[in-house]
Amino acid sequence: MKITREDVVRVADLAYLDLSDAELETYRKQIDEILEYIGKLNELDTTNVEPMAQVLTDDQTADATIRDDVEVPCHTAAELLKQAPDPEPPYFRVPKVIER
Amino acid sequence: MATNWTIDSVKEALAARRISARELAAEHYTRIAAGNPRLNAFLTLSEERAYAQADRVDALIAAGKPLPPLAGVPIALKDVLSTRGVRTTCGSKILEHYVPPYDATAVARLEAAGAVVLGKTNCDEFAMGSSNENSAYGPVLNPEATDRIPGGSSGGSAAVVAAGLAVAALGTDTGGSIRQPGAMCGVPAMMGSYGRVSRYGLIAFASSLDRIGPFANNVRDVAAVLQMIAGRDPNDATSTTAPVPDYAIEIAKPVEGLRIGIPKEYFGEGMDDGVRKKVEAGIEVLKKLGCKMVEIRMPHTDYAIAVYYVIATAEASSNLARYDGVRYGLRVSDDSLLSMYRKTRGAGFGAEVKRRIVLGTYVLSAGYYDAYYLKGQKVRALIAQDFRDAFTKVDAIVTPTSPVPAFKLGERTNDPLQMYLADIYTVTGSLAGIPGISVPCGKICGKLPVGLQIFGPAFGEARVLQLAHAFEQAGGATV
C-alpha cells in the first residue's frame, strides 16, 4: 500500500479540502492504484537527466518575452469586486481569521 | 439534417448576398435549439453578443468594405475561455455564476477577425477528463452515436462542430483534450506548439501543458482559425515571438517525398482492432501520396501516462488553490476563514477535480517531491528527447489518436486509471510541447469515427497541417 488514510487526511488538510469519510476511502483506494502505476517510473535510471521544468527553450523565451517593468493602468477593480461573494468595496470581506 | 457550413461557404454566401451574417447566426441558433437539448453541448448562449457582431459584419457588407478573414463565421468556445460579460463555468459548480470582466486573447482575436461567438461549450470540469462525464452540468452526447461519449475534455466543442451547430470551435488540450474528442466525433482538431497561441484568459489547469486550438469541418478551416489566434501576445509571457507562417499557402504544398515516422510503441496491445485497421488504411493513403514510411522507436512512450498524472495533477493542485470563496465563485459560509475555504472547496469541486487535487498535493508534499514530481520532470525530459531524436530522421510522426473509439456512457467512470489510459497516444505530444492534429480516418462499421494523429516538430504547425490537408483531400476521412 502506497498511501494510507492518514496521508489522504493530511493532504486534504494541506489543500483546504473538506472530504467526507466515503470520499476519503474512495480516493485512498483509487490514488493508491494510481501511485502503484506511477511507480513504473522507477524502472528508468534518471541519475544524469536534467529535469524538464518548462517547455520553451532559452532562445524561445529570451528577452523577447519579458516586458519592461512599467505600470499599466487597470480599470477592472469595480467589475472584479462585483464577482465577489461578499464584497465591501474596495475590499473583499472574509470570515474572522482564527489562528490555526 | 442540413449540411455543415464551412468558412469558405460562409464567405461565398455572404459575398453573393445569399444570406446575411445575422441570418446565418439565426440559422445556427435554430439548429442549436433543435439539437442541443439532446446533445447538451452548449452551456451558455451569447445571442446578444453574436447578433451585435453579425450586424457589424452586415454593415461592412452593406458599405462595400473589405471583410476580415472570418467575417460572419459562427463559432463556439469551450467554457474555460474567458468571455467578457458571458458566464464562464469551466464545467464546475464552483464557477456557476462567474462572469469574466475581460476576454481571452484567442477570443478577442477571433472576434477581431469577424467571427460570431454563439456561446460556450460543455466540458469536463476544469478540463479534467477524457469523456466529458466529469462536467457538473451533465455529459455531452456524441452526435455520431448518442449512446456514447464525445471524448473529452473539449467534448462540447467537438460535438457542436460535428453536429453543424457551429462552423468552428476552440477547445483546450492538456493531455489530448482537443485531439481525442476530435477523433471520437469525426472532425479535424489541432493543438499548436506550446507557446504558439496566447493563453491569456484561459482558466488554467496545468500551466506547462495547457494549449488552445481549433476544431472545424475541414483542415483548411482549422488552419484559418489557427492563423488568427497564433502569435505573440504581451499578456502571456509563454507565447513566443516565433514567426507565424501563412498556413493557407503552406498547406497547399505537395507532400511527396516527406518522411513519416511510424513508432512501433503506438501500435501495441490495448488498441482496438477496428482502430488499427482504419489507421493502417490511413497510412496506405499517405503512401499513395508519395510519403515515405520509416519505422522508428520512441522508447519512453510507455511512461508518458505516469509522468502526465504526476505533472498535470501537481500543477492543477497549485492552479486550483485560487478557488477560495473570497474573490469570485461559490462561497459556503462558515464562522472561520479556514473552515470557509474547506467547505467551499469541498462543495464546489466535483469528484475528479478533488481526486486530482489530492494526488497533486501529495506528489508535491514534503518527502514525496523528489520521488514523484522531480522524477516525473526527468522522465518528461526523456520523452521530449525521444521526439527530438525522431525528428532528426523524419519530417512528421503518424499514430492513432486514441486506442479506442467513443465508448458508452458510464463504461469507464468507476476506474480512473482505465480512463487515464485512453489518453496514451496523445499525452506524449503534450509533454514534449510539439504540435499535433487529429484528422478523421474512417468510421468503424460505418458508425464510430477514428482519428489519425500527426505530430510535427516544435513550431512545425505548417508541416502538420500540410500532411493533414493532403490526407483529407486524398479521401482519408472515408478509408
Describe this structure in words.
The complex is a heterodimer of chains A (100) and B (479). Chain A has helices at residues 5-14, 21-38, 58-61, 77-82; strands at 87-88, 91-92. With 100 residues, chain A is mainly alpha-helical. Chain A has a domain at 1-44: Glu-tRNAGln amidotransferase C subunit, N-terminal domain (Histone, subunit A, Orthogonal Bundle). Chain A has a two-stranded antiparallel ribbon with strand order 1-2. The radius of gyration of chain A is 23 Å and the shape is flat. The relative contact order of chain A is 0.07. The mean pLDDT of chain A is 89. Chain B is an alpha/beta fold and 479 residues long. Chain B has 3 domains: 7-250, Alpha-Beta Complex (Amidase signature (AS) enzymes), CATH 3.90.1300.10; 259-304 and 378-478, Amidase signature (AS) enzymes; 306-370, no CATH class. Helices cover 39% and strands 13% of the residues of chain B. A 6-stranded mixed beta sheet of chain B has the order 5-10-11-9-7-8, with helices on both faces. In chain B, β7, α9 and β8 form a beta-alpha-beta unit. The radius of gyration of chain B is 21 Å and the shape is globular. The two termini of chain B are 23 Å apart. The model of chain B has no long low-confidence stretch (mean pLDDT 97). Classes of the chains: A mainly alpha (100), B alpha/beta (479). Chains A and B meet through α1 and α2 of A and α10, α11, α12, α13 and α14 of B.
Short description:
In chain A, 38% of the residues lie in helices and 4% in strands. Chain A is mostly helical and 100 residues long.
